[in-house]
Amino acid sequence: MSIFRFFSKQTSAPTARERLQVLLAHERASVGQSDLVAVLREEILAVIAKHVQVDRDKVNVTMERGEHVTTLEVDIEIPIKAGVRAA
Amino acid sequence: MSIFRFFSKQTSAPTARERLQVLLAHERASVGQSDLVAVLREEILAVIAKHVQVDRDKVNVTMERGEHVTTLEVDIEIPIKAGVRAA
């Protein structure tokens, strides 16, 4: 499971793009249990899309289900001119 | 900024509790810009609370604003008997 790669290479100079990363991890008590992460995934993407203009091809979603832990990683490149919608 | 601590100590035996961690990181293009993470924070917590019974005192929220990157870390211990509500 890749940790937040862009943290390790934080450039001092302002970057020409914006980026939003979301990492979700659910540690289950029992093995066969339903997947909370799969349930949350669409709703969290919908919350983000409400506030940020998102190009579908600039959204990278990775989900990994282990025996006890399921992780979801969402990596979104935000177009500069759009940036954040007024809340 | 602490990375997902419980990833490093994944126990093979099933744990007696469930845990959900959310890590959000927004890398901004310009320094003074509004805080997307602060905008998303409440709505993401609301999405989670819809699907998981959350005890307020078992929710740990940490936000750190750096020059270019703002991070939000949410750490929720989920009571076993509650677990995930039927979606």
Q: How does this structure look, described?
A:
Chains A, B: Keywords: Cell cycle, Cell division. The structure is a homodimer of 87-residue chains. With 87 residues, chain A is an alpha+beta fold. Helices cover 23% and strands 31% of the residues of chain A. The first copy, chain A, contains 2 helices and 3 strands; from the N terminus they run αβαββ. Chain A has a 3-stranded antiparallel beta sheet, with helices on one face. Mean pLDDT of chain A is 77; it is low at 1-11. The interface between A and B is large, with 44 and 44 residues. Strand 1 (18-27) of chain A pairs antiparallel with strand 1 of chain B.
Helix content percent band of chain A: 10-25%
What fraction of the residues of chain A are assigned to beta strands by DSSP?
Answer: 25-35%
CATH domain class name of chain A: Alpha Beta
CATH architecture of chain A: 2-Layer Sandwich
Strand arrangement, major sheet of chain A: 1-3-2
Quaternary: homodimer
Q: Gap between N and C termini of chain A, in Å? A: 32 Å
Overall pLDDT of chain A: 77
Shape of chain A: elongated
Task: Please name the two chains that share the biggest interface, counting residues whose Cβ lies under 8 Å from a Cβ on the partner chain.
Answer: A-B, 44 and 44 residues
H and E order of chain A:
HEHEE
What does the largest sheet of chain A look like? 3 strands, antiparallel
CATH topology of chain A: Cell Cycle, Chain A
What integer value in Å does the Rg of chain A equal? Answer: 15 Å
What is the number of helical segments of chain A per DSSP (H or I, 4+ residues)? Answer: 2
Question: Which class best fits the helix and strand makeup of chain A?
Answer: alpha+beta
In the residues of chain A, how many domains can be counted?
A: 1
Q: Would you count the extended β strands of chain A for me?
A: 3
Residue ranges of chain A: pLDDT <50 for 5 or more in a row? Answer: 1-11
